[in-house]
Amino acid sequence: MTTARARAASHRSLVQTVALAVGVVFLLVGVLGFIPGVTTGYDAMTFAGHESDAELLGVFQVSVLHNIVHLLFGAAGLAMARTAAMARLFLIGGGAIYLVLWLYGLIIDHASAANFVPVNTADDWLHFFLGIAMIGLGLLTTRRRTV
Fold this sequence. Notes:
This protein is mostly helical and 147 residues long. The protein has 5 helices and 3 strands. It has one domain.
């Protein structure tokens, strides 16, 4: 590690480190969604829509659009991890977005055109736990100490 990188890493707050890690995970998931074998039914992947039969790890329904969203979310995490305030916003705001996606997935008919990303039941519950975890991490890593 270079001296400048070591200095930057030593001055990174916990919330920044967590946001950076979450961003890296989203990037990894986005890339893995494009790898045949890791993504089953890869040949049946569509750009968007509920017709995509591709599943990341054979469980989570994905499409090209779904993978791009993961890549963009990951890039946002990396960019926003540069400051503590933005890292906190990424975690809490991103968690809120995932809770909205969870509700959306519960409300829509998975076999309808409204399922354009697409999502399945496994995605819905992953979004719920991810939303709760991100919000929790954003709050817990930025708690102010009282004297």
